[in-house]
Amino acid sequence: MAEKYRDWLGWDVNPDEHIVVTCGVTEAIVAALLGILDPGDEVLIPEPAHENYRPAALFAGGVPVAVPLTEPDFRLDPDRLRTAISPRTRALILNTPHNPSGRVFDEEEIAGVIEVVTRYELILITDEIYDRILFDGREHIPPGSLEPLRERTITTSGFSKTFAVTGWRLGFAIAARPLMNAMRAVHDFLTICAPTPLQAGAAASFDLPESYYEEMMAAYHRRRQVMLDILTELGFRVAPPEGAYYMLADYSQIPIPQARLEPLEFARWLTKEARVAAVPGRHFYSLPGYGQHHVRFAFPKQLSTLEEAGRRMKAAFERARQE
Protein backbone atom coordinates (compact mmCIF):
# COMPACT_ATOMS: atom_id res chain seq x y z
CA MET A 1 0.00 0.00 0.00
CA ALA A 2 2.79 2.41 0.82
CA GLU A 3 4.38 1.81 -2.59
CA LYS A 4 1.10 2.39 -4.41
CA TYR A 5 0.24 5.55 -2.52
CA ARG A 6 3.71 7.01 -2.85
CA ASP A 7 2.91 7.13 -6.55
CA TRP A 8 -0.72 8.21 -6.14
CA LEU A 9 -0.15 10.87 -3.48
CA GLY A 10 3.30 12.02 -4.55
CA TRP A 11 4.88 12.03 -1.10
CA ASP A 12 6.92 9.55 0.91
CA VAL A 13 4.24 7.38 2.49
CA ASN A 14 5.83 5.34 5.28
CA PRO A 15 3.96 2.13 6.18
CA ASP A 16 4.97 2.43 9.83
CA GLU A 17 3.95 6.07 10.22
CA HIS A 18 1.27 7.05 7.72
CA ILE A 19 -1.11 4.09 7.19
CA VAL A 20 -3.72 2.29 9.27
CA VAL A 21 -5.78 -0.66 8.01
CA THR A 22 -9.37 -0.50 9.23
CA CYS A 23 -12.57 -2.54 9.21
CA GLY A 24 -13.87 -0.79 6.13
CA VAL A 25 -14.05 2.88 5.21
CA THR A 26 -16.83 3.18 7.78
CA GLU A 27 -14.41 2.53 10.63
CA ALA A 28 -11.75 4.71 9.01
CA ILE A 29 -14.09 7.72 9.01
CA VAL A 30 -15.32 7.04 12.54
CA ALA A 31 -11.74 6.71 13.81
CA ALA A 32 -10.69 9.86 11.96
CA LEU A 33 -13.47 11.93 13.49
CA LEU A 34 -12.94 10.48 16.97
CA GLY A 35 -9.27 11.36 16.62
CA ILE A 36 -9.55 14.95 15.45
CA LEU A 37 -12.76 16.33 16.97
CA ASP A 38 -13.38 17.91 20.32
CA PRO A 39 -16.95 17.92 21.64
CA GLY A 40 -19.00 20.51 19.76
CA ASP A 41 -16.68 20.73 16.75
CA GLU A 42 -18.58 20.95 13.47
CA VAL A 43 -18.13 18.74 10.42
CA LEU A 44 -19.26 19.87 6.96
CA ILE A 45 -21.01 17.08 5.04
CA PRO A 46 -22.08 17.72 1.43
CA GLU A 47 -25.49 16.14 0.83
CA PRO A 48 -26.73 13.79 -0.54
CA ALA A 49 -24.31 11.70 1.48
CA HIS A 50 -23.57 8.16 2.59
CA GLU A 51 -25.58 7.36 5.68
CA ASN A 52 -22.63 6.75 8.00
CA TYR A 53 -21.09 10.24 7.90
CA ARG A 54 -23.63 11.95 10.10
CA PRO A 55 -23.68 9.25 12.84
CA ALA A 56 -19.87 9.15 12.74
CA ALA A 57 -19.74 12.85 13.59
CA LEU A 58 -22.30 12.38 16.38
CA PHE A 59 -20.41 9.39 17.83
CA ALA A 60 -17.33 11.64 18.06
CA GLY A 61 -19.23 14.35 19.92
CA GLY A 62 -19.25 16.54 16.85
CA VAL A 63 -22.00 18.47 15.11
CA PRO A 64 -22.74 17.46 11.50
CA VAL A 65 -23.51 20.42 9.25
CA ALA A 66 -25.17 19.53 5.96
CA VAL A 67 -24.25 21.47 2.82
CA PRO A 68 -26.43 20.68 -0.22
CA LEU A 69 -24.89 19.96 -3.58
CA THR A 70 -26.39 22.08 -6.35
CA GLU A 71 -29.07 20.22 -8.30
CA PRO A 72 -29.75 18.99 -10.92
CA ASP A 73 -26.04 18.32 -11.61
CA PHE A 74 -25.03 17.83 -7.95
CA ARG A 75 -22.14 20.29 -8.18
CA LEU A 76 -20.09 21.22 -5.13
CA ASP A 77 -20.47 24.97 -4.59
CA PRO A 78 -17.65 26.50 -2.49
CA ASP A 79 -19.89 29.49 -1.65
CA ARG A 80 -22.26 27.11 0.11
CA LEU A 81 -19.33 25.64 2.02
CA ARG A 82 -18.19 29.11 3.09
CA THR A 83 -21.69 30.02 4.23
CA ALA A 84 -21.76 26.95 6.47
CA ILE A 85 -18.44 27.79 8.19
CA SER A 86 -18.51 28.83 11.85
CA PRO A 87 -15.80 29.31 14.50
CA ARG A 88 -16.39 25.66 15.53
CA THR A 89 -15.93 24.16 12.05
CA ARG A 90 -13.14 21.59 12.18
CA ALA A 91 -13.47 19.20 9.24
CA LEU A 92 -14.98 18.53 5.82
CA ILE A 93 -15.91 15.07 4.51
CA LEU A 94 -15.51 14.72 0.75
CA ASN A 95 -16.69 11.62 -1.14
CA THR A 96 -15.46 11.37 -4.74
CA PRO A 97 -16.43 9.53 -6.90
CA HIS A 98 -19.70 10.30 -5.19
CA ASN A 99 -22.40 8.05 -3.76
CA PRO A 100 -25.30 8.39 -4.54
CA SER A 101 -25.10 10.97 -7.37
CA GLY A 102 -22.30 9.37 -9.40
CA ARG A 103 -20.44 12.68 -9.68
CA VAL A 104 -16.65 12.90 -10.00
CA PHE A 105 -15.84 16.37 -8.71
CA ASP A 106 -13.85 18.34 -11.28
CA GLU A 107 -10.83 20.63 -11.00
CA GLU A 108 -12.95 23.73 -10.41
CA GLU A 109 -14.82 22.09 -7.55
CA ILE A 110 -11.63 20.72 -5.98
CA ALA A 111 -10.06 24.17 -6.26
CA GLY A 112 -12.97 25.45 -4.20
CA VAL A 113 -12.34 22.75 -1.62
CA ILE A 114 -8.66 23.71 -1.44
CA GLU A 115 -9.55 27.35 -0.87
CA VAL A 116 -12.06 26.60 1.89
CA VAL A 117 -9.91 23.99 3.67
CA THR A 118 -6.76 26.11 3.69
CA ARG A 119 -8.45 29.43 4.42
CA TYR A 120 -10.35 28.11 7.43
CA GLU A 121 -7.65 25.62 8.51
CA LEU A 122 -9.89 22.57 8.25
CA ILE A 123 -9.06 18.87 8.14
CA LEU A 124 -10.23 17.17 4.93
CA ILE A 125 -11.43 13.57 5.27
CA THR A 126 -11.89 11.90 1.89
CA ASP A 127 -13.87 8.79 1.05
CA GLU A 128 -12.35 7.44 -2.18
CA ILE A 129 -13.76 3.90 -2.12
CA TYR A 130 -14.80 4.19 -5.81
CA ASP A 131 -11.42 5.49 -6.97
CA ARG A 132 -11.12 2.85 -9.73
CA ILE A 133 -14.74 2.95 -10.95
CA LEU A 134 -14.69 5.86 -13.39
CA PHE A 135 -16.57 6.27 -16.66
CA ASP A 136 -15.81 7.81 -20.04
CA GLY A 137 -12.06 8.09 -19.53
CA ARG A 138 -12.20 10.11 -16.32
CA GLU A 139 -9.25 10.04 -13.95
CA HIS A 140 -9.37 10.14 -10.18
CA ILE A 141 -6.93 12.58 -8.57
CA PRO A 142 -6.68 12.02 -4.79
CA PRO A 143 -7.14 15.39 -3.06
CA GLY A 144 -4.38 14.39 -0.62
CA SER A 145 -1.93 14.43 -3.54
CA LEU A 146 -2.40 18.18 -4.03
CA GLU A 147 0.29 20.25 -2.34
CA PRO A 148 -2.00 22.58 -0.32
CA LEU A 149 -3.90 19.62 1.11
CA ARG A 150 -1.16 17.08 1.86
CA GLU A 151 -0.73 17.94 5.53
CA ARG A 152 -4.47 18.47 6.05
CA THR A 153 -5.98 15.38 4.43
CA ILE A 154 -6.94 11.97 5.79
CA THR A 155 -7.32 9.81 2.69
CA THR A 156 -9.60 6.81 3.18
CA SER A 157 -10.42 4.03 0.75
CA GLY A 158 -10.78 0.26 0.67
CA PHE A 159 -10.96 -2.95 -1.31
CA SER A 160 -14.69 -3.65 -1.18
CA LYS A 161 -15.91 -2.06 -4.39
CA THR A 162 -13.01 -2.53 -6.80
CA PHE A 163 -12.60 -6.22 -5.97
CA ALA A 164 -16.23 -7.06 -5.09
CA VAL A 165 -15.43 -8.17 -1.52
CA THR A 166 -17.79 -5.92 0.44
CA GLY A 167 -18.18 -8.54 3.18
CA TRP A 168 -14.46 -8.49 3.93
CA ARG A 169 -14.77 -5.01 5.48
CA LEU A 170 -11.25 -3.93 4.62
CA GLY A 171 -10.43 -0.26 4.42
CA PHE A 172 -7.54 2.01 5.25
CA ALA A 173 -6.52 5.57 5.94
CA ILE A 174 -3.39 7.46 4.95
CA ALA A 175 -2.35 10.76 6.53
CA ALA A 176 0.58 12.83 7.72
CA ARG A 177 2.00 11.73 11.07
CA PRO A 178 0.11 14.10 13.43
CA LEU A 179 -3.26 13.12 11.97
CA MET A 180 -2.35 9.44 11.75
CA ASN A 181 -1.17 9.38 15.37
CA ALA A 182 -4.60 10.65 16.43
CA MET A 183 -6.35 8.04 14.29
CA ARG A 184 -4.22 5.11 15.43
CA ALA A 185 -4.83 5.89 19.09
CA VAL A 186 -8.54 5.51 18.40
CA HIS A 187 -8.26 2.51 16.06
CA ASP A 188 -6.25 0.49 18.58
CA PHE A 189 -9.13 0.66 21.05
CA LEU A 190 -11.99 0.63 18.55
CA THR A 191 -11.38 -2.60 16.62
CA ILE A 192 -7.70 -3.46 17.37
CA CYS A 193 -7.15 -4.61 13.78
CA ALA A 194 -8.80 -5.76 10.59
CA PRO A 195 -8.71 -9.58 10.08
CA THR A 196 -5.16 -10.62 9.21
CA PRO A 197 -6.01 -13.44 6.74
CA LEU A 198 -8.18 -11.05 4.74
CA GLN A 199 -5.40 -8.47 4.72
CA ALA A 200 -3.10 -11.10 3.22
CA GLY A 201 -5.69 -11.81 0.54
CA ALA A 202 -6.18 -8.12 -0.21
CA ALA A 203 -2.43 -7.59 -0.52
CA ALA A 204 -2.48 -9.87 -3.57
CA SER A 205 -4.61 -7.29 -5.39
CA PHE A 206 -1.60 -5.00 -5.75
CA ASP A 207 -0.03 -7.52 -8.11
CA LEU A 208 -2.99 -7.49 -10.51
CA PRO A 209 -2.16 -6.19 -14.00
CA GLU A 210 -3.76 -3.06 -15.42
CA SER A 211 -5.82 -5.29 -17.68
CA TYR A 212 -7.92 -6.28 -14.63
CA TYR A 213 -9.11 -2.69 -14.21
CA GLU A 214 -9.65 -2.25 -17.95
CA GLU A 215 -11.85 -5.34 -18.10
CA MET A 216 -13.70 -4.30 -14.95
CA MET A 217 -14.52 -0.90 -16.38
CA ALA A 218 -15.55 -2.33 -19.75
CA ALA A 219 -18.05 -4.49 -17.85
CA TYR A 220 -19.27 -1.52 -15.80
CA HIS A 221 -19.77 0.57 -18.93
CA ARG A 222 -22.02 -2.19 -20.30
CA ARG A 223 -23.96 -2.39 -17.03
CA ARG A 224 -24.35 1.38 -16.89
CA GLN A 225 -25.76 1.49 -20.40
CA VAL A 226 -28.21 -1.35 -19.74
CA MET A 227 -29.44 0.35 -16.57
CA LEU A 228 -29.73 3.73 -18.28
CA ASP A 229 -31.74 2.21 -21.11
CA ILE A 230 -34.08 0.45 -18.69
CA LEU A 231 -34.74 3.49 -16.51
CA THR A 232 -35.14 5.89 -19.43
CA GLU A 233 -37.60 3.60 -21.20
CA LEU A 234 -39.64 3.31 -18.01
CA GLY A 235 -39.88 7.10 -17.68
CA PHE A 236 -37.30 7.86 -15.00
CA ARG A 237 -35.18 10.97 -15.43
CA VAL A 238 -31.57 10.04 -14.76
CA ALA A 239 -28.11 11.29 -15.74
CA PRO A 240 -25.28 8.90 -16.63
CA PRO A 241 -23.02 8.53 -13.57
CA GLU A 242 -19.43 9.73 -13.95
CA GLY A 243 -18.13 7.32 -11.33
CA ALA A 244 -19.23 4.71 -8.75
CA TYR A 245 -22.11 2.39 -9.66
CA TYR A 246 -25.28 4.18 -8.64
CA MET A 247 -28.03 6.09 -10.39
CA LEU A 248 -30.15 8.64 -8.55
CA ALA A 249 -33.34 8.52 -10.60
CA ASP A 250 -36.30 10.95 -10.59
CA TYR A 251 -39.60 9.06 -10.87
CA SER A 252 -41.95 12.09 -10.77
CA GLN A 253 -42.73 12.03 -14.53
CA ILE A 254 -43.57 8.31 -14.80
CA PRO A 255 -47.24 8.11 -15.92
CA ILE A 256 -48.47 6.03 -12.99
CA PRO A 257 -50.36 7.12 -9.85
CA GLN A 258 -47.44 6.02 -7.65
CA ALA A 259 -45.28 8.81 -9.11
CA ARG A 260 -46.94 11.11 -6.58
CA LEU A 261 -45.74 9.03 -3.63
CA GLU A 262 -43.01 10.12 -1.23
CA PRO A 263 -39.65 8.37 -1.86
CA LEU A 264 -39.99 5.88 1.01
CA GLU A 265 -43.48 4.87 -0.07
CA PHE A 266 -42.46 4.63 -3.72
CA ALA A 267 -39.50 2.41 -2.81
CA ARG A 268 -41.77 0.19 -0.71
CA TRP A 269 -44.25 -0.07 -3.58
CA LEU A 270 -41.44 -0.91 -6.01
CA THR A 271 -40.12 -3.60 -3.68
CA LYS A 272 -43.54 -5.14 -3.10
CA GLU A 273 -45.05 -4.90 -6.59
CA ALA A 274 -41.97 -5.29 -8.82
CA ARG A 275 -39.69 -7.12 -6.37
CA VAL A 276 -36.94 -4.62 -7.20
CA ALA A 277 -35.25 -2.84 -4.31
CA ALA A 278 -34.16 0.80 -4.48
CA VAL A 279 -33.13 3.26 -1.76
CA PRO A 280 -35.32 6.34 -1.14
CA GLY A 281 -33.60 9.59 -2.09
CA ARG A 282 -34.54 11.19 1.23
CA HIS A 283 -32.32 8.59 2.92
CA PHE A 284 -29.24 10.52 1.78
CA TYR A 285 -30.29 13.88 3.24
CA SER A 286 -30.75 15.37 6.67
CA LEU A 287 -31.85 18.63 5.05
CA PRO A 288 -35.63 19.01 4.79
CA GLY A 289 -37.14 19.20 1.33
CA TYR A 290 -34.32 17.45 -0.52
CA GLY A 291 -34.33 14.05 -2.18
CA GLN A 292 -37.97 14.22 -3.17
CA HIS A 293 -39.15 11.94 -5.99
CA HIS A 294 -35.77 10.23 -6.22
CA VAL A 295 -34.66 6.66 -5.60
CA ARG A 296 -31.17 5.23 -5.93
CA PHE A 297 -30.48 2.15 -8.01
CA ALA A 298 -27.23 0.17 -7.81
CA PHE A 299 -25.97 -1.70 -10.87
CA PRO A 300 -22.98 -3.88 -9.78
CA LYS A 301 -24.94 -6.93 -10.93
CA GLN A 302 -24.90 -9.47 -13.72
CA LEU A 303 -26.46 -8.15 -16.94
CA SER A 304 -29.13 -10.83 -16.69
CA THR A 305 -30.07 -9.56 -13.22
CA LEU A 306 -30.39 -5.99 -14.46
CA GLU A 307 -32.48 -7.10 -17.42
CA GLU A 308 -34.77 -9.09 -15.12
CA ALA A 309 -35.18 -6.01 -12.91
CA GLY A 310 -36.22 -4.06 -16.01
CA ARG A 311 -38.83 -6.68 -16.94
CA ARG A 312 -40.23 -6.71 -13.42
CA MET A 313 -40.52 -2.93 -13.21
CA LYS A 314 -42.10 -2.71 -16.66
CA ALA A 315 -44.74 -5.26 -15.70
CA ALA A 316 -45.46 -3.48 -12.40
CA PHE A 317 -45.80 -0.10 -14.11
CA GLU A 318 -48.18 -1.55 -16.70
CA ARG A 319 -50.37 -3.01 -13.94
CA ALA A 320 -50.33 0.35 -12.14
CA ARG A 321 -51.51 2.18 -15.28
CA GLN A 322 -54.40 -0.24 -15.70
CA GLU A 323 -55.65 0.04 -12.13
Q: Would you give an account of this structure?
A:
The structure is a single chain. By secondary structure, this protein is an alpha/beta fold. Helix 2 (24-36) packs across helix 6 (177-190), helix 4 (78-84) packs parallel to helix 5 (107-119) and helix 8 packs parallel to helix 10 (303-322). The longest helix has 25 residues, at 210-234. The protein folds into two domains: 2-207, Aspartate Aminotransferase, domain 2; 210-322, Aspartate Aminotransferase, domain 1, CATH 3.90.1150. The chain has a seven-stranded mixed sheet, with helices on both faces. A three-stranded antiparallel sheet has the order 8-10-9, with helices on one face. It is globular. The model has no long low-confidence stretch (mean pLDDT 97). Strand 2, helix 3 (53-59) and strand 3 form a beta-alpha-beta unit. The protein has helices at residues 2-9, 24-36, 53-59, 78-84, 107-119, 177-190, 196-203, 210-234, 263-274, 303-322, and strands spanning 19-22, 42-47, 63-68, 89-95, 123-127, 153-158, 171-174, 246-250, 279-280, 294-298. Helix content is 39%, strand content 15%. The protein has ten helices and ten strands.
